Amino acid sequence: MKYxxxxxxxxxxxxxxxxxxxxxxxxxxxxxxxxVKERIKVLKEEGVIEKFTITVNSEKFGKQVxxxxxxxxxxxxxxxxxxxxxxxxNVASIYQMTGPSTLHMHVLVENxxxxxxxxxxxxxSVQGIxxxxxxILLKRFKSRVGYxx
Length: 149
Fold this sequence. Notes:
The protein has helices at residues 5-16, 22-29, 33-45, 78-86, 112-123; strands at 65-73, 91-97, 102-109, 129-136. The chain has 149 residues and is of the alpha+beta class. The protein folds into two domains: 5-45, Winged helix-like DNA-binding domain superfamily/Winged helix DNA-binding domain (Arc Repressor Mutant, subunit A), CATH 1.10.10.10; 58-138, 2-Layer Sandwich (Alpha-Beta Plaits), CATH 3.30.70.920. A four-stranded antiparallel β-sheet has the order 2-3-1-4. The chain is elongated.
């Protein structure tokens, strides 16, 4: 399906404020409330809009340490390891990357002691992982949440 400028405007407005009303959206993009509702319905049905959610400042909820991991996995174990890690409540996101069966993972924990515990007890103990490389986030300049079309 081809999306026009109005669809882009709708999505960008929803990125700014996912709780904006259909009436307000209609005013901002220049179409009727009914047309806004129908377009959003179609965008959801076609998978352009996956879901409506909120962004939580993890630091305000006690998750002070944000770490990123590159995790190399035995190819036969990739799906099992990925699901195992995805089920961990400390894992904010996990992606399969190009390369030798590599997973890219974002982890949020309360402090460095918890990060050490996560690495030693919950990451290194997973069978099938062959290499782990980590980086600690110092400062966030932009994240996907703010991505505009």
